[in-house]
Fold this protein.
Amino acid sequence: MSVSLKPLKGFRDFLPETCAVRNYIFACWRSVAGRYGFSEWEGPVLEPTDLYRKKSGDEITAQLFNFEDKGEREVAMRPELTPSLARIVAREGRAFKKPLKWFEIGQCFRYEAPQDGRLREFYQFNCDIFGEASPAADAELVALAVDLVRELGFSPDEVTVRLSDRAAWVRFAEEAGLTDDRVTEFLQIIDKMERAKEETPAKLEALGISMEKVEAFMADPSGASEAIGAVVEDLTARGMADYITVDLGIVRGLAYYTGVVFEVFDKKLGKRAVAGGGRYDDLCELIGGRKAAMPACGFAMGDVVIASLIELTPKANAKLTEFLSKEYAPDAYVVVAAEERRADALALVQKLRTAGLRVDYAMVKTKIPKQFQAAEYLQARAAVVVGDSYPTVQVKRLADRSETEIAESALISTLEALRDPDLPPGTLLA
RNA sequence: GUGGUCGUAGCUCAGUCGGUAGAGCCCCGGAUUGUGAUUCCGGUUGUCGCGGGUUCAAGUCCCGUCGAUCACCCCA
């Protein structure tokens, strides 16, 4: 009986091509987080199930990859990164100067039905600021999110950050006379409003709130929340206003959010949210007790939706291609044109590699056309032909087939020059 | 958990009224013995997802089942 060759439902095999795309996304995440002064951390993939129960309630365990370990502990694969972070900060946060700005890239797991933009395994990029209650911290995060989508090649026509404030809705609900337990219910109705237009008025009536009043509230976001105003002002000063849409329709599902919340969406393709986050000032206390209380905000971006958006957006896709060519394509493929020169070719290969160039070659005797095919298949920038005229070698730029003969000693500088993607065609024509 | 669609070669798919399975791509070899894009010639590749039923005969019709995918639910 043979084993299934497919990965488990909702899991992925990262073959070199998709692995490279994943690494590109990671590289953008790291680069932007670094520019914003965030430090990278990493937590465990497996946590006690209670960590997630405590935060989100029992209903969430239905979508957890959880089991009992051999020590009879209830454990769960992490479905997100924030609880681990809150746990760590509750325990060790005092040792760090505030504000604390940390990010993590981690694989997460959720036992759900896979569909477009959603798998059972995915990577999340998580950015958090602890110890700063001012909207300036929320703005810093939104700015980071904006720079992230910019870095990936998206314009304000393609992507927007929808900005809202959960606290404004809580005040609205309280003024309408709702008791605490009804507020959560109310927030869920608002959250679903966009998807369930028809049922919303009736649901609101059941709570004694009119649709008209809700619509009037949403129509004037500036009056609804000072925090939103402060964040918008901050982002305008940064020149990012064109990426921002104030939209009180964003509430964010269940959860622990206490103030400003935001989600990043594409404008044209109607995919699910690319990223989302907000302020969660109560979570540290909830997990670590009164002594751990600390204001906090954060957001996360998954790799799945953003990867499909990159694929479908020409400019973003071009940036990806440029990165792949720069980071992965061999600088040279050494063609062994005369087998008796193999020792010289090997010496040359190692010399180039030591100089930091990416170099490949055929390990065993191979017909020359095959070697060129291999070079092209690997998208090498140049073929270096080692033959009878060694130490003079032939360098051929594969993109335009221009070629020249040079001394082996001049090879490194020539190959380094070929790395420049803007080099005009025919450069090597002797 | 519920529903729609789809499962045929490594990949993308065609397959009419039920009549004994095909194309393109890929791959391999050759035209071309020291130079990769085109072209031409030749070649390999099948549990038609699986199980049952109807029939002289099933890739095709029926039932079941598994898988993929999309949507609902949920979305931390």
About this structure: The mean pLDDT of chain A is 91. The longest helix of chain A spans residues 16-35.
